[in-house]
Amino acid sequence: MNVLAIDTCLGAASAAVRWRGKDGTWKMREAYEELSVGHAERLMPMIAEVMAAAGLAFSDLDRIAATVGPGTFTGVRAGVAAARGLALASGVPVAGATSLAVMAHRADASLGAGRAGRLLAVAVDARRGMVYIQVFPRDPIGAAPAALLAPEAAARLIGNGPAIVVGSGAEAVALAVRAAGGEAEAALPDLQPNAASLALMAPGLAPAEPFAPLYLRPPDVRPQNDKSLPRVAP
C-alpha cells in the first residue's frame, strides 16, 4: 500500500510517503519540523517535497492518512482539511489516527525492550491542569479512546501499572499513579507525533467517512462582548 501520511496536531509538522519501489522493497521519504506556529504554511511544501522525492503522483497512492487530534485547534484543522482536500481531489481513501496513537507507535520504536511488557500511556499537557491521555496495550490501534482528564483521573485510567507514560504530561500523570500506590515511570517528555510512524500504521487503519477532527474540548476563543456590533431591528 502506497501511503501519504501527514501530521500537524501538536508541536511539529510532518509529512511522509511510504511506497514499494520497483525492486520490491519498501521505501520511505519524510519531512519533519518542530514548530509552535505556522503548521498550515509548512505542510503543503512538505507534502510536495516528499512526493517529489518519492517520484510519485497522487494517483499512485492507495491511502492518505492524517492525525485527527487531539491537539491545537489550528493544527488539527490544518491537517484534517489538507487530508480532506487531497482525498477529494485524488479520489484516494483517507484514514485517521489520534495524535496520541501515533506518539505511542513512535514511543514503542524508541523504547524497544525498555517497555518490557509494561502498559504504555501517552499524556500530553493540555493546560489548565488537564492532559490528553490515551492508554495502549501492545497494539496502539486497539487502544481505548483518547480523553481529556486531570492527572489524577488519568492515573485511575492507567491503574496500578506497571506502566510507562510518555509525552509532555507524562511526569504529572506518573506522579499521580505513584501517589495512588501504583507503579509508573515517565519518559520521552519531548515526544511529538511523526507522520513516518503514521505511514507505517496506515495499512491497518480503515478509511473514515466522514473524516472528522477530534478536539476533546471547546475552543478557547470567545466573542468579546464589548466588541460585538449592536443588532439593528428590521
Structure description:
The protein is 31% helix and 25% strand. It has two domains: 3-98 and 193-204, 2-Layer Sandwich (Nucleotidyltransferase, domain 5), CATH 3.30.420; 99-187, ATPase, nucleotide binding domain (Nucleotidyltransferase, domain 5). Strand 1 (3-7) and strand 2 form a beta hairpin. The chain has 234 residues and is α/β, with parallel strands linked by helices. The relative contact order is 0.18. The strands form two sheets. The protein has a five-stranded mixed β-sheet, with helices on both faces. It has a five-stranded mixed β-sheet with strand order 8-7-6-9-10, sandwiched between helices. The protein is built from six helices and ten strands; from the N terminus they run E-E-E-H-E-H-E-H-E-E-E-H-E-H-E-H. The protein has helices at residues 39-54, 73-90, 99-111, 151-158, 170-179, 195-201; strands at 3-7, 12-20, 26-34, 63-67, 94-97, 119-127, 130-136, 147-149, 163-166, 184-187. It starts with a strand and ends in a 33-residue tail after the last helix. The mean pLDDT is 92.
Core attributes:
Nucleotidyltransferase, domain 5, 31% helix, alpha/beta, five-stranded mixed beta sheet, 10 strands, 2 domains, 234 residues
Quick overview of this protein structure:
The protein is an alpha/beta fold and 234 residues long.
